[in-house]
Design goal:
Layout: E1 10-12, E2 17-19, E3 26-30, E4 40-45, E5 50-55, E6 79-83, H1 87-97, E7 102-107, E8 119-120, H2 122-127, E9 137-139, E10 141-145, E11 151-154, E12 164-166, H3 169-182, E13 186-196, E14 205-211, E15 225-231, E16 233-236, H4 243-247, E17 255-264, H5 267-272, E18 276-280, E19 291-295, E20 300-306, H6 313-324, E21 332-342, E22 350-351, E23 354-356, H7 358-361, H8 372-389, H9 399-427, H10 431-440, H11 444-456, H12 464-484
Parallel strand pairs: 6-7, 6-16, 7-13, 10-18, 16-23
Antiparallel strand pairs: 1-2, 3-4, 3-15, 4-5, 8-12, 9-12, 10-11, 13-14, 14-15, 17-20, 17-21, 18-19, 19-20, 22-23
Helix pairs in contact: 1-3, 1-8, 8-9, 10-12
Bound molecules: flavin-adenine dinucleotide.
Flavin-adenine dinucleotide binds at residues 83-89, 106-109, 112, 114-119, 191-192, 237-239, 243, 258, 260, 303, 339, 341, 358-360, 364, 369-373, 375.
Length: 500
């Protein structure tokens, strides 16, 4: 039987256990079958040796020894399991692993190609040290297209070295996962099934995993084996349908359903989209979001999303294809994908020694639907808090320590989420308001402010005179739009800010 990981291969036989991992940590890996009758637990060291292995015929041998109070000094490294190996999970794992924690990352699909537009802001490339080959295309031109097909070109304010990065998620995620592994993360290719605290809230978490085995790229590649893993802290980075969130009863969020077709178009048409992305607004393509054509490696991603009328998503998709018209005519659909996008943070994001990050926590911005950067950033911030508060993995942490990440996150990003929520409510409420929105995008000042805050994720200090002009311009656009037509806006809510 093999209870192994890509980095950690633990073979448990009747009397022997071996492990082949570089590093300097020790782990406790349990094989659940061995609890029944045989009751065997195997402790292994990342140095390559077996620390202990025992079998007992009686009760399980965890007991009070396993209960450790917050802040207590540990005689072994803090054990952290990260569920999910997307940007949030990989970045959390990297941070924990390089800072003294014994880190596990459980990912069900190593070749996962997350349904996604793949657009990332420029600052992510530097901040997360991404190599140029991760970026398929550098987009420095955008077209905003209004309901009446009025086009506004955006991008003239960009400097020559400024662009939006277009990535393929299978490439980006694989890179981030491999880097986390290089720093010492034990990567387990398996499906996280559940977890429990057998010794109460200060005891360890025992995770149940269907282990697909080393080298498996997707489920079914290899026979599943069940394994258990005992850890101190759990980070839920398992996306919008998070199982970890359900287990800690984190509460629901409103969500959009986003739909995307990857369409291969001929070279001439592809040339048109070489460094250009298009955003279409109108109640034909979405009642509360936008439709997009994003250039990818050798094709375009064409998609849309909605919160308020999910059953009509295919009708909106037909409309976005129609609006793109001749520019994608004759293209071959090579992949169809759909996935939920969270609309606001969950009511609870931390419970005891469990924290949620990325989509599992609900960190996608309204209006733009952007989540990759926020996933990576929240994963990193959470990993940093775990590492710092545990004194590089030397002391037990608790809920108060994990809240350091949450407080920092909310302080830094709450205003961004709030502003984008308001913008969505104001400008996506009717076709008339959308026309006004596109008109406003003609302003160089609006373009610079929008791009700067997207590309660099900082609140850009404005020019007071231009701000006043913008305010009057906005009011005028909205009044003009409302004079044309007013409809009831979508009942999209940001969700109340609650203490997690
Ligand atoms: C159609 C669409 C287009 C989008 N376009 C963009 C865009 O252009 N730019 C942008 O910034 N954002 C975009 N987003 C949002 C973005 O995709 C997400 O915000 C981002 O992927 C969140 O990253 P994450 O790591 O939190 O979660 P995910 O990327 O969802 O990763 C979760 C990982 O956990 C794994 N997992 C889940 N459950 C388990 C389990 N039980 N056991 C083991 N592993 C598990 C999954 O396999 C997955 O690899 C888009 C979303 C959609 C749906």
């Amino acid at each position: 039987m093999q209870c192994g990981t890509r980095a950690t291969s633990v073979k448990v036989g009747s009397a022997s256990a071996t492990k082949k991992v570089a590093g300097s940590r020790k782990a406790v890996v349990m094989c659940p079958g061995l609890y029944q009758g045989n009751h065997q637990r195997v402790s292994v060291s990342s140095r390559g040796g077996v620390l202990s292995s025992w079998a007992s015929g009686g009760r399980r041998e965890v007991g009070v020894r396993a209960v450790i109070q917050d802040g207590a000094k540990l005689d072994r490294p803090l054990r952290v399991a990260i569920i999910g190996g997307g940007p949030a999970g990989a970045c959390a794992a990297e941070e924990c692993a390089k800072n003294g924690c014994e880190t596990y990352m459980i990912e069900r699909k190593m070749d996962n190609c997350k349904p996604c537009g793949g657009a990332i802001p420029l600052c992510m490339i530097d901040e997360f040290d991404l190599p140029p080959e991760i970026i398929d295309r550098q987009v420095n031109r955008m077209k905003m297209i209004s309901p009446s097909n009025r086009e506004v070109d955006i991008g003239s304010t960009l400097k020559p070295n400024e662009y939006i990065g277009m990535t393929r998620r299978e490439v980006l995620d694989d890179y981030l996962r491999q880097r986390a592994e290089k720093y010492g993360t034990n990567v387990i290719n398996g499906l996280f099934m559940g977890m429990e605290q057998k010794e109460g809230e200060k005891g360890p978490w025992t995770l149940s995993i269907n282990n697909y085995g080393e080298g498996a790229t997707s489920k079914g590649d290899k026979a599943r084996e069940k394994m258990e893993l005992e850890v101190d802290v759990v980070v839920g980075a398992d996306g919008a349908t998070s199982r970890v969130a359900k287990i800690i009863d984190a509460g629901d969020y409103d969500y959009a359903i986003a739909y995307q077709e990857r369409i291969r178009i001929d070279q001439e048409r592809m040339k048109f989209y070489e460094n250009l992305a298009e955003m279409y607004v109108g109640d034909d393509v979405s009642p509360d979001f936008y439709g997009w054509v994003f250039p990818k490696y050798d094709h375009v991603g064409v998609g849309t999303g909605t919160v308020i009328n999910k059953p009509a998503i295919k009708q909106y998709q037909d409309a976005i294809r129609d609006r793109a018209g001749d520019k994608i005519t004759g293209g071959k659909i090579i992949k169809i994908e759909a996935h939920p996008i969270p609309e606001h943070p969950r009511p609870k994001r931390i419970e005891g020694r469990v924290a949620l990050v990325g989509d599992a926590a609900g960190y996608v911005t309204k209006c733009s639907g952007e989540g990759i950067y926020f996933a990576a950033k929240s994963g990193r911030m959470c990993g940093e808090a775990i590492a710092q508060r545990s004194n590089q993995g030397q002391r037990m942490i608790g809920e108060r320590d994990l809240r350091v990440y949450l407080n920092k996150w909310d302080r830094k990003y709450w205003p961004t989420y709030k502003v984008l929520d308001i913008l969505q409510k104001v400008f996506y409420r009717s076709n008339a308001a959308r026309e006004a929105f596109v008109e406003m995008c003609q302003s160089e000042y609006v373009q610079r402010m929008t791009f700067d805050s997207y590309l660099y994720k900082t609140v850009v200090p404005g020019n007071p005179i231009n701000d006043i002009k913008l305010l009057f311009g906005t009011i005028a656009s909205i009044l003009r739009a409302n004079a044309l037509r007013v409809t009831n806006g979508p009942s999209v809510t940001f969700g109340e800010r609650k203490e997690a």
